[in-house]
Structure formats: C-alpha cells, structure tokens
Amino acid sequence: MLKTVPMLLTLFRIAAIPGVVALLYLDTNHGRYLACTLFGVAAITDFFDGYLARAWSQQSKMGQFLDPVADKLLVAATLLMMTGFGQISGLVILPAIVILCREIMVSGLREFLAEIRVGIPVSTLAKWKTTLQMFSIGFLIVGDTGPEFLPTRLIGETGLWIAAVLTLATGYDYLHAGLCHMGPSDKPGDSLHKRDN
Fold this sequence. Notes:
- With 197 residues, the chain is mainly α.
- It is built from seven helices and no strands.
- The protein has one domain: Four Helix Bundle (Hemerythrin (Met), subunit A) (Up-down Bundle), CATH 1.20.120.1760.
C-alpha cells in the first residue's frame, strides 16, 4: 500500500515540509528560491497523487486520510514560517488566519462525520481554492526577492486574500453539509463527554 506511486507522492509532500522549513530558516535569496521550488514540486504532487490513484485504481483508505493531511501540514507549516520571518505581515496575516482556522474546522468536522460513517466529497471550488492557495504561497515565499519587473509580493498577497474568500465559502459549504448530520444525541454519556472536552 505504501509503495504505490500515488502514496509515495503523498509521502513526499509530507517529507518536503522539513526541507521547506529549513530553507526558509536560511533567510537568504537563494534559500527562498529553493524553498519555493521545493514547495512548488510538493504542491504539484497534490494533483498527480489523486489523478494517478484514480487512473490506476490504487485508491486506499490510507491515501484518502493522508492526502488532505499532507496538504494541511504543508500549508500550515509554510504560512507559520513566513509569518514568523515577517514575509507575511500586517493585514495579510488575516487571510492566513482564516485559512488555518478553516482547515482546523474542516478537519474536526471530517473526524466527527467519519465516526457516523458519513463522507463529504471535496468540491470543485475547494480544489480551486487549494490551487490558488498553493500558487499564492509560492509567490509569497519568494517575496521581495523576485524579479523587479514582477510584483511578486503583491501577486502572492492578492492571491492569498482571494483564497481566503474561497476558504470561507467552501468552509461554510462543508459546515452546512455537516450540520445536517448533527442532531440531538440519544446516548446518555454524550453530554458528559462534551463537558470533559
């Protein structure tokens, strides 16, 4: 299961995270370009692992679990690093917060729905959101070290704001779909469980 090409691509995306973090720690122009390259390659695998898994009938429960987790880890780690180093600052921190909060909410929602054996398929809008998100983060990694003729930071910041709007829209869709499966519980231990958490 772990040796299929789609799974290896997913695992590569997770393994790339320490590399991106280390390169950002260099805090040099070359480090940023290398970090952007590694991030970009990792982001591209997000398309190919799902596509190949479907094309080669190599879909698995492990892959369905790891694929979105890999995306969230890559995005969260990179956004936090760039915020820490000041590459994301001022009001641009707001869309980053929106993106991170949405990912946490959706993860919790999926965990809840998994317990009652309900799945929510990824929408087309959510896929576009992820694509724009990755694209914007790549530009933000390069930041002011980009070529003079290209407003790299502006492109990244604008894209992140648009991605945040799409994040809110898709987050609402997932929450609305999830709320349909949330009703009063008949289990006597549920209220105690909720208080303990």
